[in-house]
Amino acid sequence: MSDVTRALQDAFGTERLRCEAPLRELTTFKVGGPAQWLVETRGSDDVVRALRIAHDAGVPVVLLGGGSNVLVADSGVRALVIRPRGGAIVPVDTGHIRADAAMTINGLVRWTLTHGLAGIEEWAGTPGTVGGAVCGNAHFGGRLISELLSSVRLCTRQGVISEVEVSAMGFGYDRSRVQTTGEVLLSADFIVSPGDPVVLRATARRSLDYRKRTQPLHLPSAGCVFQNPVPEWDVVPQGIPWSAGALVDRAGLKGAALGGARVSPTHGNFIVNEGDATSSDIRGLIEQCRVAVREQFGVELREEIVYLGDFSDVTPDADGATL
Ligand SMILES: Cc1cc2nc3c(=O)[nH]c(=O)nc-3n(C[C@H](O)[C@H](O)[C@H](O)COP(=O)(O)OP(=O)(O)OC[C@H]3O[C@@H](n4cnc5c(N)ncnc54)[C@H](O)[C@@H]3O)c2cc1C
Q1: E strand or H helix that includes residue 247
Q2: 280-283 CB contacts, 8 Å cutoff, 24+ apart
Q3: Burial letters for 85-102: b for 16+ Cβ neighbours within 10 Å, e otherwise?
């Protein structure tokens, strides 16, 4: 047994540390290989302890929240995968609540509805956790989740904790500073105000209905694969919507398949796993969409989803799509 395995086992016990642990069921795409080590943490102290062990052993660390915005390589992830679980919400003052990174967004919405607090109800139906949502600055209905925050608690890879104001988080569309610093989100403070539970529930229901109408929720996916183009970086030809899904659609790739992966006929920015997709199928199809959009519209699509593991053996075949 390696030293790092022993240190992790001493800290978390054999039931919470798993070696070569399958990850596919922990992601919404339902694909991908195992984690070299997987630790399910319960609270910030556990996360900090796992980070320190990995740092001392020189082992890379990957955070996994709800697994709803990631594509795990077929070969898995050669790292310590930390999966925060459980989590709590506590009131900070009359206008703020603190949610642990492990808390699901849906759990957070439910809690605010029960407590008659407004601010987060529109996010009902967003898969994943507070950690993943803040890391990628999730968006819904033209708003960014960072707009709902006042501050967050972060931990460095060395295990040093700090309180960070939202203005120092480098938030932008699909962007936050933790994507480059490697810091780990421990908790986030959300701004809330008193609200009528009946009205809040109606708003939450509208969001859920909207998702049911517009997204292929019956098949595994990771939501939108690509970011929408933005005026800051992109030039979209006149008459074409500034939407990655519309670009994929107009490039003729809506409904295209590669192996068990298909560009959803319902939503051009969703790739769905029809049951037996591999991660390489999905990665190959992503590349086909990117090439088609680049060639036809001169727009370079950027991924919204995050790749975990090594994809260097995946050779995209731009001509291989079947309709
Ligand atoms: C059907 C469907 C609909 C979706 N709709 C939307 C939508 O409307 N808007 C939207 O923005 N997204 C949407 N998504 C994508 C996804 O739900 C969000 O991006 C979500 O916020 C990801 O959270 P997660 O916990 O699943 O993160 P994961 O997928 O587990 O991880 C995403 C990234 O965050 C990192 N991460 C996770 N936890 C932490 C942490 N504690 N500290 C630091 N880094 C961390 C991971 O390492 C990874 O890089 C959708 C996905 C699906 C499947």
Answers
A1: helix 244-250
A2: 280/74, 280/311, 280/313, 280/314, 282/29, 282/31, 282/71, 282/258, 283/71, 283/307, 283/311, 283/314, 283/316
A3: eebebeeeeeebbbbbbb
Mutate to test the pocket of ligand 1, among 71, 81, 126, 143 (most ligand atoms within 8 A of CB): 126
Which top CATH class is 3-85? alpha beta
In the DSSP assignment, the letter for residue 32 is: -
Cβ 203 vs Cβ 125: under 8 Å: no
* Nearest CA, atom 37, ligand 1: 132
CATH architecture of 89-214: 2-Layer Sandwich (3.30)
* Orientation angle between helical segments 3-16 and 44-57, nearest 10 degrees: 160
pLDDT of residue 1: 76
Nearest CA to ligand 1 atom 9: 139
pTM of the model: 0.95
* CATH topology (fold) of 217-323: 3.90.78
Contact present, 23 and 38 (Cβ < 8 Å): yes
Per-residue pLDDT of the chain (323 residues; tens, 9 = 90+): 789 999 999 999 998 999 999 999 999 999 999 999 999 999 999 999 999 999 999 999 999 999 999 999 999 999 999 999 999 999 999 999 999 999 999 999 999 999 999 999 999 999 999 999 999 999 998 999 999 999 999 999 999 999 999 999 999 999 999 999 999 999 999 999 999 999 999 999 999 999 999 999 999 999 999 999 999 999 999 999 999 999 999 999 999 999 999 999 999 999 999 999 999 999 999 999 999 999 999 999 999 999 999 998 765 544 444 33
With residue 92 as reference, give the H or E element that holds it.
Answer: strand 89-93
Look at ligand 1, atom 47, and give the residue with the nearest C-alpha: 63
Any idea where the domains of the chain sit in the sequence? 3-85, 89-214, 217-323
